[in-house]
Write a structure and sequence with these properties.
Layout lengths: L9 E10 L6 H12 L3 E11 L5 H11 L6 E3 L5 H11 L4 E5 L10 H5 L7 E6 L6 H18 L10 E5 L15 H11 L4 E6 L14 H18 L1
Parallel strand pairs: 1-2, 1-4, 2-3, 5-7
Antiparallel strand pairs: 4-6, 5-6
Pfam family, one: Glycos_transf_2
Keywords: Cell membrane, Glycosyltransferase, Lipopolysaccharide biosynthesis, Membrane, Transferase, Transmembrane, Transmembrane helix
GO molecular function: undecaprenyl-phosphate 4-deoxy-4-formamido-L-arabinose transferase activity
Length: 237
């Protein structure tokens, strides 16, 4: 794989961190993002989205923002779901590029260099977890979901829900997202394909979660994702 060497800095990037009860991880995720992305972008803005959690995530990101103007928190008064958190982050993103990742620290943000290799050639640069470090049932669920999405929408994406993606911000001038839950990645990629945007898959590392609890396997979240999936398929097929 080609690796970016001594890159010329790009203009600006907005980095979105959806966060639901991530008090144990959010500070480290923000600090790691600033450290990694400041090497490659002149302007770095961090947009942590507190999705109505019950812990201290909201207070933590507000405290961080008080000492660093690069951090621009967004708050949901109640839990609206992963897709809604991402949509709020995308709406707040004003810089030329948009990147998002989860707040749980399962990615090495220094690996943004792997994506930047392709920044001049593709509209969407999509990380995929080379060796997914999640429990077996989550890996099986992820494989089945990705397979179904690829079949329904004919998109050549290896890891639909991998939270390590980089885009040009102007794609959101023509792509309007509606998904409130876990289906947001599928909606984004299906609409991007329909609009003719180019995309590439790039392998990234993935690590076990060290703190906090995963919520993606919640049965309600899964059922909502399937409802939104077939609704989207009916809409754009």
């Amino acid at each position: 794989m080609a690796v970016l060497e001594s890159p010329e800095k790009l203009s600006s990037v907005s980095i979105i961190f959806p966060a639901y009860n991530e008090q144990e991880n959010i500070t480290r995720s923000i600090q790691n993002a600033i450290k990694a992305f400041s090497k490659y972008f002149h302007t770095v803005t961090i947009i942590p989205v507190n999705d109505g959690g019950e812990d201290s995530t909201g207070e933590i990101i507000d405290t961080l923002a008080a000492f660093d103007e690069r951090i621009k928190p967004v708050h949901h008064q109640y839990n609206q779901g992963y897709g809604a958190a991402l949509r709020s982050g995308f709406a707040a993103a004003k810089n030329d590029y948009v990147f998002f990742s989860d707040s749980d620290g399962q990615f090495d943000l220094e690996e943004i260099t792997r994506l930047l290799t392709y920044v001049d050639s593709y509209d969407l640069i999509l990380g995929y977890r080379e060796n997914r470090a999640d429990p077996f049932h989550r890996r099986v669920n992820g494989w089945a979901w990705s397979s179904l999405v690829r079949f329904l929408f004919k998109i050549k994406v290896k890891d639909i829900d991998c939270a390590f993606k980089l885009f040009r911000r102007d794609i959101f001038d023509v792509i309007k997202l509606e998904a409130g839950g876990a289906m947001v990645n599928t909606e984004l990629l299906a609409l991007a394909k329909k609009r003719g945007f180019s995309m590439i898959n790039v392998a990234v590392s993935h690590y076990p979660r060290e703190a906090g609890e995963q919520t993606g396997a919640n049965p309600f979240v899964i059922l909502k994702a399937f409802y939104e999936l077939f609704k989207l398929h009916a809409k754009i097929s």
